[in-house]
Amino acid sequence: xxxxxxxxxxxxxxxxxxxxxxxxxxxxxxxxxxxxxxxxxxxxxxxxxxxxxxxxxxxxxxxxxxxxxxxxxxxxxxxxxxxxxxxxxxxxxxxxxxxxxxxxxxxxxxxxxxxxxxxxxxxxxxxxxxxxxxxxxxxxxxxxxxxxxxxxxxxxxxxxxxxxxxxxxxxxxxxxxxxxxxxxxxxxxxxxxxxxxxxxxxxxxxxxxxxxxxxxxxxxxxxxxxxxxxxxxxxx
Amino acid sequence: xxxxxxxxxxxxxxxxxxxxxxxxxxxxxxxxxxxxxxxxxxxxxxxxxxxxxxxxxxxxxxxxxxxxxxxxxxxxxxxxxxxxxxxxxxxxxxxxxxxxxxxxxxxxxxxxxxxxxxxxxxxxxxxxxxxxxxxxxxxxxxxxxxxxxxxxxxxxxxxxxxxxxxxxxxxxxxxxxxxxxxxxxxxxxxxxxxxxxxxxxxxxxxxxxxxxxxxxxxxxxxxxxxxxxxxxxxxxxxxxxxxxxxxxxxxxxxxxxxxxxxxxxxxxxxxxxxxxxxxxxxxxxxxxxxxxx
Lengths: 236, 293
Ligand SMILES: Nc1ncnc2c1ncn2[C@@H]1O[C@H](COP(=O)(O)OP(=O)(O)OP(=O)(O)O)[C@@H](O)[C@H]1O
Ligand SMILES: [Mg+2]
Prior knowledge:
The structure holds 2 protein chains of 2 kinds. By secondary structure, chain A is of the alpha/beta class. Chain A has helices spanning 43-51, 73-78, 96-103, 109-122, 124-128, 139-151, 169-184, 196-202, 220-223, 227-233; strands spanning 3-14, 17-28, 32-37, 60-63, 66-67, 81-84, 157-161, 188-193, 205-210, 213-219.
């Protein structure tokens, strides 16, 4: 299967801080690829740059063959690349249903109802709370809403930034189950996680980030047994 | 003071309050979406008023056309100011944006002085006559003004709460980055907010002219500042807050005048501003401004 996303040689700065140095990687259609790394390694910066919220000073980012390095974030979403940002960032003042509608902002009105039913099927909890204001949801429910909202866009590639952060173990399992299900259903996923164990066990391939650089790459199943990785990220 | 006089003053207050509310909505919506106190907003009203004046007094257009012209020019002006002066500063510090807004305000006031002259223009009232409601004589202008603004506010609430564009506006107000990640275009949504706010100012300008029949280059500054106080009182960023704040300020002024202190009307409004800022800076319905975690 072909490459759907390719990141070539990007460098991202916050003022004078050089957060990403010469990063290149790619994601093939149908894959789950994960970026792992410690706090501050540059994982979120990488995803935000792909989304167009941040810009790289060098190199290029291609999505389905087209350069998106200078495309506005909303056009990137329109082309099918959707991110669930770190910290969920659901709209606290909008209801669950309105949040989902915003997720489907780029889609024709006629298709929204059906997608919403699919999301409610995936997360029955959200259906019960359709008219509740986002701000009153629990952390776990907010994470479900953030994922459901992204799925409303019918993404060709979905990027998840620490979907399990701050959740109880049972909920973490549920989130990873859903990611695995999405993958089985043919979705392409770029997953950023602190929970390296879980991420590596479902990922086809992984890239390891350290202070803004990729220091290692390989199959998920290989890296999970790599002694260095075990020591640094798996707490073994 | 007799009861009927009190009612009459309340109606007066609601009439001015309607105009304040319409203008306050523009302040609040713009603040909500780009966190800018758009000090040029009051001057949009001035331009709208001049348009109405020239259309009727110089070109003898029918009032309906004059009103459409005033609203159209106000809307276009508001959107143009946003595109030319504010869009390039979208990622600049908020202070730069604020200073730019003050600059635009001066530009519009002085431009108007140059174009239209520094003197006041007076015109014949657009709406005359009155009706007796029980003991109270109520002018048609007051009735029209209050009705028009209430209808407009209902429409606006519908747009903001129920339409896709309105929901996108609320999403952008809350979290610009997350809104972009939904595929919402910032440029389009912010322009739309300015367009709606400026159209409301245009309507406000016509209603103002109906009541006071005068236009001058600086008329927008006092009106604008009072509407700003109304927006702060209601809770800046909140749409129902702006409506409530507008009516409250209008009624307050009327009551201060009714008890014989009409010289102190303006002072009373600013006293309200000071009290709100000291004791409840978020106003009636404003949210606490939270830093994102
Ligand atoms: N807005 C910002 N301004 C300045 N520096 C920033 C900003 N955002 C991130 N950084 C810095 O860039 C580096 C990479 O941050 P990033 O958020 O990408 O890390 P991360 O890998 O996602 O970490 P975490 O696992 O904690 O989320 C860090 O050193 C961080 O301090
Ligand atoms: Mg991060």
